[in-house]
Design a protein that fits this description.
Blueprint: H1 8-23, H2 30-66, H3 71-99, H4 106-113, H5 133-152, H6 157-196, H7 199-232, H8 236-253, H9 256-269, H10 274-287, H11 290-306, H12 313-329, H13 337-341, H14 355-365, H15 368-397
Helix pairs in contact: 1-6, 2-5, 2-6, 3-7, 3-10, 3-11, 3-12, 3-15, 6-14, 7-8, 7-11, 7-15, 8-9, 8-15, 9-10, 9-15, 10-15, 11-14, 11-15
Protein name: Na+/H+-dicarboxylate symporter
Subcellular location: Membrane
Pfam families: SDF (PF00375)
């Protein structure tokens, strides 16, 4: 009999529910509840140790890869993708800062921050990271740019392959240790949140947050297609209709990579040339993260309001700018964009291994499929724009004038 494999999201939901239930069981002695809390504490120390290595492994290779390729075409694709990601972050913060205080009241914030003290771990193991997060970021960006420059001089392949293999090792560690351990980690933390009595207030907030996030994602994707249609002087509604299978595929697979073949076929139907669709769609699957940043910024803003922490525009803009770069340069982190964002939460005053970060991981991963669907849908809108840029340049060079209002031949050149 074939065994049914339970996915990560169902495991996380089960861990959250069980954590809430166990935390409310007054019949259990405190020492029993402290066992999963101790495991979570040990896992948190391990995660703290791995985070700087994640930055080094992903950011160096990400920057080195992004600066190699088809010159201006790569630059245009990256610029549009990064711009879309940043705009998504800014809009998410703006809406969140206006709407969320309507239901995250001062009374609720006070209830969360003044909830009972949680249980302590039975024991801890001192495991200090080899580098702090700031040092790892600076090291990664300097070396990434340096290796990119060397590769431009036909050098540096040895050190590039070293960090590429290092990145593969980090991916292996995350896939075999960190990601499978997340449900246990989250279970222990939700036991503590439930024990303190703050979980009810938190859950009463986040179902509303997710409704706002989903609306922002859908509106953003529609806006990208409308912009692409106006730029190409074509009707965007057919593009939106064509994208439905890609959106559904991303919802089901929770993977941008798994949706690439479907997205390429959709791009072909949209009239995007073969050269562009086979270049832009796979690239955007890793560098365009409109849906993901919308969720991350919305959730971060919500918890900052909830815990009565600063969330002013200047602070959040710095976080959005850094997060936009980090998510573009570090797309390989399993578990979605939240794993790439984790090391940079300290920018807004959130510990990368504390209970708030754990809450963010849980909330993000339970709706990750919607963010992924928004990401990949926007990829095809970007492909339409880049295709127009590409062909307009070529047509201008060859003195060709396309028929107004008609899509460019998808197989030209």
């Amino acid at each position: 009999m074939k065994k049914t494999k339970i996915g990560l999201v169902p495991k996380l939901i089960i861990a959250i529910v069980l954590g809430i239930v166990f935390g409310q069981l007054d019949v259990l002695p405190a020492i029993i509840l402290q066992i999963p809390i101790t495991i979570s504490s040990l896992f948190s120390s391990l995660l703290s140790f791995i985070i700087p290595l994640m930055i080094i492994g992903y950011v160096i290779v990400g920057i080195a890869d992004l600066t190699q390729g088809a010159g201006k075409l790569l630059g245009a694709t990256t610029l549009i993708s990064y711009g879309s990601t940043l705009v998504g972050g800014v809009i998410a913060y703006t809406i969140a800062s206006i709407v969320f205080p309507m239901f995250i009241t001062p009374e609720l914030s006070q209830k969360v921050t003044e909830s009972g003290e949680g249980l302590a771990a039975l024991f801890t193991i001192p495991l200090e990271p080899m580098l702090d997060v700031t040092s790892a970021i600076v090291f990664a960006f300097l070396f990434g740019i340096g290796i990119s420059w060397l590769r431009g001089q036909n050098k540096g392949e040895t050190i590039y392959h070293f960090f590429s293999d290092f990145s593969a090792i980090i991916t292996r560690i995350l896939n075999t240790l960190v990601i499978p351990g997340l449900p246990i980690y989250i279970f222990g933390n939700f036991v503590n949140l439930s024990y303190t009595g703050s979980i009810q207030s938190i859950l009463s907030v986040f179902w509303r947050v997710f409704l706002v996030v989903l609306a922002l994602q859908l509106i953003g994707v529609l806006a990208l297609f409308v912009i692409a249609g106006i730029y190409r002087k074509e009707k965007p509604w057919q593009f939106i209709k064509n994208q439905v299978p890609g959106y559904i595929t991303a919802l089901g697979t929770q993977s941008s990579a798994a949706t690439i073949p479907v997205n390429i076929e959709i791009a072909r139907k949209n009239g995007v040339s073969r050269q562009i669709r086979e270049f832009v769609v796979p690239l955007c699957a890793t560098i365009h993260l409109y849906g993901s940043i919308t969720t991350v910024i919305s959730c971060v803003t919500a918890v900052l309001i909830m815990y009565d922490m600063p969330y002013d525009f200047q602070l959040m803009m710095g976080f959005i700018l850094i997060l936009g770069i980090a998510m573009v340069a570090a797309p390989g982190a399993p578990g979605g964009a939240i794993m790439s964002a984790l090391p940079f939460l300290t920018v807004v005053g959130i510990s990368a291994t504390g209970p708030i970060a754990t809450l963010l991981i849980s909330l993000y991963l339970t709706q990750d499929s919607f963010g992924t669907a928004a990401n990949v849908s926007g990829d095809n809108a970007i492909a339409l724009m880049v295709d127009k840029i590409y062909h307009t340049k070529i047509l201008k060079e060859k003195n060709w004038v396309p028929t107004r209002g008609k899509p460019i031949n998808s197989e030209v050149l």
